[in-house]
Predict the structure.
Amino acid sequence: MLSFFDSALLRRYLLFHKPYNVVCQFSQTEPDRLTLKSYINVPDVYPVGRLDQDSEGLLLLTNDGRLQHQLTDPKFHHPKTYLVQVEGIPTDAHLEQLRRGVVLNFKGNLYRTLPAQVELKNITIPDRVPPIRYRAHIPTSWLEITLIEGKNRQIRRMTAHIGFPTLRLIRIKIGHLPLEPLQSGQWRELTLSEIKQDLRCFF
């Protein structure tokens, strides 16, 4: 029987910095829509989870079905970290609501989100292409949010719930795997060290 390491080394594991307006699929359903195929020419790998078309950042792709299951099944609670630009500047009292969990409506069912790690960040991020809408009299701010769940458009719903709509969302980490130093549109294979150390925590 193959060990975890031997089995993992037979697989492909890719990290991709998904740009804005790219759909997380390889099939071309609309001729003018950018997909993963526009950037990644590796056969038989598929995204683990997804990022919405209007979101950016780290995407893990693999042909390892076991890893796909571990990372997408909500019962495993693997952390994912995001930088989130919101309209306005929330106070710590606003952020505390997200840390405790808020009640949202998902497909007609009320659900309290699990506690999240949330911090206001003083950072500068290069502009998106195309840039977000600009309003001269409305400031924006950046939050770093770590979730251990991933319901449909959850972060956008959470920030809207406390009165600060999300303008831009960038996933910067999956578990211990970081987005940097990948630039938008770039991808790379995981290193042997990352396969042995960082993937092991998902099993």
